[in-house]
Amino acid sequence: MNGIRRGLILLILSLAVIVGATLPASATYSTTTAALTTTLSTPTVAAPGNLAGKLTCGRPATMSATWTASGTARVSGYLVSVYFSDGFVQTVQLGPTATSWSATIDPYYVTAYTINYTVTTQTDYGWTRESAHTATFGC
Question: Going from the N-terminus, what domains does the chain have, and what CATH number goes with each?
């Protein structure tokens, strides 16, 4: 009895495969498509404004810079860069509300080399924008 059932099932399945393979596939294609419109906007990171650098000569000398905060959303901080004429760059990381910076330096370094400053806006999504360089200072 089981042998007959297995034989009938095998025969029915074999016929189904043969009949299915002989039928043509049915698909419809269209030459027109619906137009998709996408608007993509990207934020712009603004550099700090009104950057003013200063160098006060003395023992020790004092480097300083002031700026207005960037109007960019989600500012995570500012990076002050001091560029020395020999190619060395000194950087200082500041918080998101900073609008000024100062530091003392041995007068030798600002007598032997000239300096200028930039301030870079940093965001919490990784985008940055550096300001233009200030004028050059030296003692």
Answer: 49-130 (2.60.40.10)
Backbone φ, ψ for residue 3 (5° rounding)? -65, -40
CA distance 134 to 138: 13
Query: Phi, psi (5° rounding) for residue 10?
Result: -65, -40
Q: What phi, psi does 2 have (nearest 5°)?
A: -65, -40
Lowest mean pLDDT among 26-30, 42-46, 77-81: 26-30
Which residue's entry shows tokens 């043969």? 18
**Dist. CA 104–CA 57, nearest whole Å:** 10
Neighbours of 1 (CB within 10 A): 5
Report the pLDDT averaged over residues 40-53: 87
Place of tokens 């200030």: 134
Q: How is residue 32 written in tokens? A: 């027109």
**Three-state SS at 16:** helix
Write down the pTM of the prediction: 0.69
Query: Residue holding tokens 């000239």?
Result: 114
Gap between the Cα atoms of 52 and 46, Å rounded: 17
